Automatic annotation (TrEMBL):
This is Transcriptional regulator. The keyword Transcription applies. Keywords: DNA-binding, Transcription, Transcription regulation. The keyword Transcription regulation applies. SUPFAM superfamilies: GAF domain-like, Winged helix' DNA-binding domain. Signal peptide: none annotated. PANTHER family: DNA-BINDING TRANSCRIPTIONAL REPRESSOR YIAJ (PTHR30136:SF19), HELIX-TURN-HELIX TRANSCRIPTIONAL REGULATOR, ICLR FAMILY (PTHR30136). Pfam families: HTH_IclR, IclR_C.
């Protein structure tokens, strides 16, 4: 026979109340994140679907802990910069491959094609992850750790598109000796590249139309970080003949979806 003492019952109730207070406090923090200039207590209570006395009590606890402070407008509250410090510590602990790999593996299974994941290192792409195709026999020459030019690949053009406005012009000026036509489709003229980069920013999508290697096409999308900077790019490579056969629409949707999921995991909010 199990006997529940008054002390056990009290401890259980305290744990339940503590959990409720924690969840409600976190809910208030999330809501206040939408009001950088502060939110009136009454409106916050309405949004959180709590009574004002409960919200006031929770805000006092958050204030005492340094997460919330009164806003200039009377009766309003806003978040403090303490949360920025915590967020930066969380971001610094992220291993991007650990975060991105499950999503990239899913893209590999969905498309059956080669999946690439890269970052930018100075004026080159650095390939940091690659998955071989699950269907077909084509294997690209790219390998993990490889450096590739920016101007003649889908991922490279993604990085160029989201750099500062003068980046492409400066790149063309300082890399004039290496910009060459690998195929008849390689973009080697700056005005045409600027048009291409504008389309990439508009569509959040880049294409390699056999610009580095005949018979091979690539679809890439940007991965944004918490500061809305493009730190990584994800792409799918496949034979051009197969791309024409299956159509680009489904592949584009899959690449963009995976890029967006990785972006959200590393703190991006659209």
């Amino acid at each position: 026979m199990n006997l529940i003492t008054a002390e056990d019952d009290k401890t259980k109730k305290e744990k339940t109340l503590g959990s409720q207070s924690l969840f409600r406090g976190l809910q208030l923090i999330e809501l206040l994140g939408n009001f950088p200039n502060g939110c009136p207590l009454a409106h916050l209570a309405e949004l959180a679907e709590m009574n004002k006395s409960t919200v006031h009590r929770l805000l006092q606890g958050l204030h005492a802990s340094g997460y919330v402070t009164p806003a200039p407008s009377p009766g309003s509250y806003r978040l403090t910069t303490k949360l920025i410090s915590i967020g930066q510590k969380a971001l610094s602990s992220l291993n991007i491959i650990h975060v991105a790999a499950p999503h990239l593996e899913q893209l590999n299974l969905i498309t059956g094609e080669t999946v690439n994941f890269s970052t930018r290192e100075d004026d080159h792409i650095l390939l940091i992850y690659k998955l071989e195709p699950t269907t077909g026999m084509m294997r690209t020459r790219a390998y993990i750790g490889q450096h590739m030019p920016l101007y003649c690949s889908a991922m490279g053009k993604v990085f160029m598109a989201y750099e500062k406005s003068q980046f492409a012009a400066n790149y063309w000026l300082t890399h004039r000796d290496i910009i060459e036509a690998f195929t008849r489709n390689t973009i080697t003229e700056l005005p045409k590249m600027l048009e291409e980069l504008e389309d990439i920013r508009r569509l959040k999508l880049a294409m390699d139309r056999e610009e580095k290697e005949l018979g091979v096409s690539c679809i890439a999308a940007p991965v944004f970080d918490i500061h809305h900077n493009v730190k990584y790019s994800v792409s799918v490579s496949l034979p051009t003949a197969k791309l024409k056969h299956v159509g680009a629409k489904a592949l584009i949707s899959a690449v963009q979806d995976i890029a967006q999921r990785i972006s959200h995991e590393i703190g991006f909010v659209s």
